[in-house]
Amino acid sequence: QSTMSAVTAGSRNTNPSEPHKSWKKINEERKALKRQRKQDKALKDLQRVQDAEAAAKNATEAAKSMKPNPSTVSIAVPGSILENAQSAELRAYVAGQIARAACIFRVNEVIVFDDVGVATARETKRSYEQDAEGNGTATVRSSSLQLARILQYLECPQYLRKYFFPLHKDLKYSGLLNPLDTPHHLRQQSKFRYREGVVCDKQAKDGHSYANVGLLNDVLIDKALEPGVRVTVKMDPPSETTRKQRGTLVSPDEPRRETGVYWGYQVRIAHSLSEIFTKSPYEGGYDVTVGTSDRGTNVQEVPSKSLQFNHMLIVFGGLQGLEEALSNDEKLTVDDPEMLFDHYVNVLPKQGSRTIRTEEALLIALAALQEKLQPQHADIESDLSDLLPRSEDTGVTMRRDVLVSKKKKRRLEEKPESEVDTAETTPVPIPSPKHAPKPAPMHANPFNGRSAQAASPVVDADFEVVSATRDVVKEVTSTANCEDLSRFD
């Protein structure tokens, strides 16, 4: 027992030089340490609150100093125009024409609305929205749904389509359509500060994600998002310390606001004519609305730069015009569609055809209204010709003579020198009677004014010109073989 007590005492007092502390002093030290920790935590919380207030203040100042979004132009097209096409290929091509017209004139929103009543279109309605249980919550006409799907497909960059558009019968003939080739459809070799991408399921560090933006390697973005979300990424400048490319998540409006580059359009579906106005995505709705009809006023009478707008809406009618769409809308009580719009114009007063198709009216109206528009916030003018791909980057067909000359040059380069030398030293073989030179024409060329050359026989002539006189005709018919009537054998 004495030995064990000695060992225990030795273990308790390992350092005999330190004085023995009482429990009272130990508790005081613990309380002081706890008090110090509380003070440090309070200081950290105060610093965190001050940082949050400073960040909010900076955000509000940045929002005040930030440039406003440029003014927008929206168009509304009825989905029933696809039903007027004679085949499935033409249905897709009509949708492609609308998408092309929208991007040519820098349209920011395309609205596909149903201009046919519910009673007559119930059998052709199809579900396009599903809740959490998978049940259809909203239905729309099949033609409207196909038009909206093709418009979205063409607007999406090519390297992102496989993520958002699985195989579907509405997109069966989308390969026949002309590409939009808008600026946000960037090539892999293009260098631009903004890119469209999709969040990948690749594992990243906390608070970050990887996004596929059309480059060889994925880009590390500064937000943690679920995979499959379409994002707009602002590319960070390349760093010398790391080879990993990084980017910042930004709003889809920022590329157009900061650089003035057209960044595609949004697609929205409206169930009726009234939903075009009531479900606008812009705050305050559309401030200027324009309806197109052959019963409207002449567009040439509208003064230049008179349509001042921030969010403009241009509505086009279908096969029966806007009058039919108004009569099929149960929520609207007016009888004349002119009462719905600020301006009701006829974009082509002297038309040569009885009807103008909607895809044609789209181009005509947007071209006629270009000089009438006066946006409140215009796009900034910036020279981006060196950064964005130009039209010649898409591939231009070469002329046949250029291709043939390139083939000849390549064939000469690939031919060994021995074959070239032997070809130069070998004598020219004597032509056989089958390949004998062509005889001289029987008569001189009467269209050649030089008499000296006309009298001399021409060996390389491919044809002869015979004077249209009776004597010459008799001579030719007498000397020619009566059994062979063709002179171009």
TrEMBL record:
Pfam family name, one: Methyltrn_RNA_3
InterPro entries tied to this protein: Alpha/beta_knot_MTases (IPR029028), NA-bd_OB-fold (IPR012340), Put_MeTrfase-C9orf114-like (IPR003750), tRNA_m1G_MTases_N (IPR029026)
Polar residues biased stretches: 1-17
Matching CDD domains: HsC9orf114-like (cd18086)
Pro residues bias spans: 428-440
Segments of this protein annotated with the region Disordered: 1-25, 234-253, 407-455
Recorded family membership: Belongs to the class IV-like SAM-binding methyltransferase superfamily.
Protein name: SPOUT domain containing methyltransferase 1
